[in-house]
Request: fold
Amino acid sequence: MKHKLIPVAHPVFAGNEKKYVNECLDSLWIASGEFIPRFEESFARFCGVPHALACNSGTSALHLALMALGVGPGDEIIVPTLTYISTANAVRYCGAKPVLADSGARTMTLDPGSLESRITPRTKGIVVVHLYGHPADMDAIADVAARHGLFVVEDCAEAHGALYRGRAVGGLGDAGTFSFFGNKIISTGEGGMVTTRSAALYRKMRLLGGQGMDPARRYWFTVVGYNYRMTNIEAALGLAQLEQIDKHLAGRRAVVELYRRHLPQNLVELPAEEAWARHAFWMFTVRVKPEARIGRDELMAALDRDGIETRPVFYPMHLMPVYEEPCGTYPVAEDIARRGLSLPTHGMLTEEDVVYISRCIQRACTRSDAAVTP
Reply:
């Protein structure tokens, strides 16, 4: 008998979400309203920066940051090949070229050692992705950027609350971008945020994200802008979620400790957490070891039959038709993508769930036909 479905992600609404959304409905302020600036100010404090701008998606946030930094046709932006496709797409939206780089084997984030060989006279900046919630090695990346006069944008879509040497992600580069999609650590359904320490950059992003309307003269448009605004209802959800962020992160950390206790570590490689980092664990992403008698895709299929939802690690950009590089060589990213899968990671999981998932993995990886019971 198939076990109950254990979803890979699950939003947790345990605070003021209903209260704040009902306030929007009762006041009729559903599009604009007071929750937007409240969410922005709270999120800026959370990231340790003076400025945050709410957007309608993490992709919009990334596009705004790149546009405000002057990215355009003819420019090249270095991005990791191992990331969700929106990282590269936002570069392409600007008419620029994403130049791909390999990942580090432990953190799965951009390898600083791969940057120098990717830099050309057209390189304008670097987009760093804190993949699955682990911060990239920002000091090493910043050193390369400074020597070559490049900007650094942090793609923090999966890393709310992650720390690099005690500092919050989103405040380590020229700008940071976040996603609040339904499967993220905190969620507004859809939505995003861009953070920065630069007042000038913030003003430019706000202008571009609000259709280009002059903030001092209503319906007077000074640039071609975009409709990238967040709604008041989404911001109400976001503010309520942010009020509970410590609980959300602690819940994930508790699940991680259960996985570390129960998973068969002789068969799957657990995600690393460097001494200088606090992993946010958007997803608990493991890699199937060669010792297992099963491939990644076979394991995912077996877990699906057991009622356990999983996700494959993102396909590297250079393998997909829109950014394909037939001669590209990115061995670390390809190995991670071939062996990696994300297990259910959210605050609704119980120890019983984690034990069941671990037993199913043990059985599948050893090809045992013994039944697994919760």
